[in-house]
Structure formats: structure tokens, C-alpha cells
Amino acid sequence: MDAATDLRVMVPMDEKHQDGKVEVADGIVLTAEQKRRRRARSIAIALALVALVLLLYAVTVVKIGPEIFRRPL
Amino acid sequence: MKHSAFTATGKGAALSSPSQVSGLEPSLAEVGDYVALMKPRVMSLAVFTAFVGMIVAPGEVHPVLAIAALVCIAVGAGAAGALNMWYDADIDGVMGRTRRRPIPAGRVTPGEAFAFGVTLAVGSVAVLGLVAGWLAAGLLAFTIFFYIVVYTMWLKRWTAQNIVIGGAAGALPPVIGWAAATGDVGLAPILLFLIVFFWTPPHFWALSLRRTDEYRRANVPMLPVVSGAAETKRQVLAHALLLAPISVTPFLFGYAGLLYGIAATIVGVAMAVLAVRLKIARSDIAAYEAGKRLFSFSLLYLFILFAVLLIDDWLTPWMPWMPRLTFG
Q1: Same domain for B51 and B124?
Q2: Which of B29, B112, B126, B304 would be a feasible disulfide site paired with B33, CB 3.0-4.6 Å?
Q3: Count of CB atoms within 10 A of residue B21's CB?
Q4: Size of the A and B interface in Cβ pairs below 8 Å
Q5: In terms of domains, do B146 and B244 share one?
Q6: What is the pLDDT of residues B117-159, one digit of tens each?
Q7: CA-based max dimension of chain A
Q8: Under 8 Å between Cβ of B98 and B214
Q9: Which residues of A touch B107 (CB under 8 A)?
Q10: Do B178 and B191 fall within a single domain?
Q11: Nearest to B31 among A30, A34, A40 (CB)
Q12: How close A19 gets to chain B, by Cα (Å)?
């Protein structure tokens, strides 16, 4: 296993039901490094989506031009 | 050519564990790994040649539409790179040059790379269609299809002519740029296509001559592995000699001025001289160095050619005295 794989930590995760019964099951708890990487990926996806919205907005204005303002209110 | 000695060793990178299939495995990928999946250096070449194709095309493109189209072409090229890495992860893992790529290094799972590539491919084609028309979008879709299905999945593991035919994918961006600007495709973008098409074999064979053992170990039938170094050097020289006159054709057909004609002649002769030096290199060390010089110069060659084409186009209105061949 390389260093990257070592970041994965498999630990038992307790799940508490409404009746108070606690069930122990295998689960995954993210390490701090994994959480940081997930956050970075989420931010990158958000920025990409914002860029796509801005791109489509700009293209719409350029393609339609002043006509975009000539519409019944 | 001896093709039958080699068979495909993989059909795309397999998902390596049940948890990866079910999506339970936490991803280890950095944002930079996804950038690396898009092969930024290859992408930059595609964007540059598409940009030149777009600018030298007749008429004017609104800067916003030009930027949007180039972004789509860049993302489409990145999608092709990601899907190529997805399919070739088995090969990448045994080659020194590529084993640190995100999938063989274990930072990105094959499933993540596949989903990333498909999403970018569909998105880039759809947005390019809306921005610059469906001819350009269709050409982009064809380019991605050709690179992944025809080159990566079929030719690369089957024939020593893999990069000759597969080079068509890398040669299409200037045609896409032209189509995005004009809505059609004429002779001029086809000449640009031919330049990149004939440039690709000597460029990649100069690299593969120095990586023959790695390609052999990975069972990839590159020309030096199948036919030997001597035949590869002969083919490099033949393609370099073909490339030189083809590079001058935009001037000869009246699509570019004398400045481009002179530049294309000089760099074409320089490339042919380097190919001759590779051909006559006697020792392995001399051949290694000659191959390295040819590979480095080939990168510069394409950049100079397209940059001068761009400068020539910009200077034409300011230099009406500059000779330009015209027909009809």
C-alpha cells in the first residue's frame, strides 16, 4: 500500500436507532486530510459551475444583444 | 508490419475493489489530480492550434464567443485526455513516464476518471454547439470519439501505425477553430490539419525511440518495438521530408503571406536536417541525443509555424506590399 492508501481509515461506526438500540457496523470516518481534499474538490466544482453560468450568461447577451431588453414586461 | 505479435492487454482500467464499485471508498483525489487527468500540455497545444484556426479564418468572431468556444475546445481535449487515462491505466502503470499519473498512482479511481471524462465530453460538445454552431460541436465530438475509440481502444494496442492514423485526432483542433468562426470547413483548415497530421509521427517516434523498452514491456506496438530503430528512423525522415513542403502549402495556396512561407521553409528544413542526423547517428548515445533534439525541436516547430501564421495574418492589413500568392 502506498502512502495515499494509508489515509483511508476503516473503523466501526455506532448507529443509534430511535429505540435506543446501538448497532455497531463497519463504516468510514474521513481523516482530516480526506476532509480537506473533499472540501477542495467541492470548492473546485462550485467554481466550475459559477464559471459555466457566467459563460452562458455572457454568450446569451452577445448572441441576442440589445434584443434581450426588448420584451413585454 | 508485424501486428499480430501484440494483443490488447487491457480493456479499460478495472475497478479494483467492491467498495469502489459501491462508492463507499473515500476519494483521495486532489483538485490537481483532476487537472492532471486532462493532460494540460496536450490541451494547450489543441487550444493554441484551434485559436490560430479561429483567428486566421475569414470574418470576425466576437471575443466572448471566441473565448467561450476555446474553453469548450480545451475542456473537450481535457475530456479526451481523462478518458484516455481511464482506458490506458494498465499501460501507464508499467511505464516510467506515466506511472505517476493519478489512476496508476491510486489517487483517482478508474470510475471517477471515467465519470469525469464523460461529463466533460458531453458538456463541452453541448455548450460548443450552443456557442459556435453544431458543425464545430460535431467535429469536437468526432475528435473525442476518434481519440478514445479509434486511437486509444483500437489502434494503440494493435498496429505500429497507431500514431500515424491516430494523429488525426490531434490535427483536428485548427479545423474546429475554423468551423467555430465560419460555420464551415474549406481547403485552408484542411491544410492546417495536414500539417499537424504529418508532424505527429516524427514527433512521437522521436520520443518512442528513447522509450522502446518501456513500450515493449507494456505490450504497446510502437514502431521501434515492432520494426526496430533503423526502420523508425527511416520513417521519421520520410515524414519530416513530407512535412516540409506540406507546411508551406498555406503560402502556396494563397492563404498566408511571404513571412509565413519563409518561416515554414526554414523550420521545415531544420526539422528535416535533425531527422537526417537521427538517421545517420551510428552509436546508441548519438541516436539518443539526436532523438531528444528532434523531439524538442518538433514542439518548437509546431509553435513557430502556427505563431507565424497568426502574426502573418495580423500583419497583412498593415503590410499590403507583402507578397501573397492569389488564384483566380
Answers
A1: yes
A2: B29
A3: 12
A4: 52
A5: no
A6: 999 999 999 999 999 999 999 999 999 999 999 999 999 999 9
A7: 65
A8: no
A9: 4
A10: no
A11: A40
A12: 27
